[in-house]
Amino acid sequence: MTNKSKMKLKQNDNVIILAGRDKGKSGLVSAVFRAENKIVVAGRNIYKKSVKPSKKSPKGGIIEINAKISASNVAIICPSCNKPTKVGYQTNKEEKIRVCRKCKGAIIFPETKA
């Protein structure tokens, strides 16, 4: 069964977690998995994994990994009103803009280049 829901979250969006262990904490979206309807929030939902010695990690040991979170468990934080909100859309002549449902302000986050 494939989930064809349209995800309104993008990479580098500022989100707040609504459910789970990190409830109430915010962070930036570092990866989006549209087919699974999941995202990875940087620095949140971290779990530890034991690894055997290998070429990558010669000593082995315990590493920390960011786990995926269901997209339904997060809400985007509007940059203009600073509140968690749902995302709406407005169309201009040439482009489609994401809009805050509370304050009707445009949701535009600066692109960070790594």
Question: Strand fraction band?
Answer: 35-45%
Sheet of most strands: 6 strands, antiparallel
CATH architectural type = Roll
Anisotropy-based shape = elongated
Report the count of strand segments. Answer: 10
Mean pLDDT: 85
Strand order of the largest sheet: 6-3-2-1-7-8
Low-pLDDT residue intervals, each spanning 5 or more residues: none
Provide the CATH topology: SH3 type barrels
Helix content: under 10%
User: How are helices and strands ordered from N to C?
Assistant: EEEEEEEEEE
Please state the structural category.
mainly beta
SS field, number of helical segments: 0
User: N- to C-terminal separation?
Assistant: 35 Å
CATH class: Mainly Beta
Provide the domain count. 1
Global Rg = 17 Å
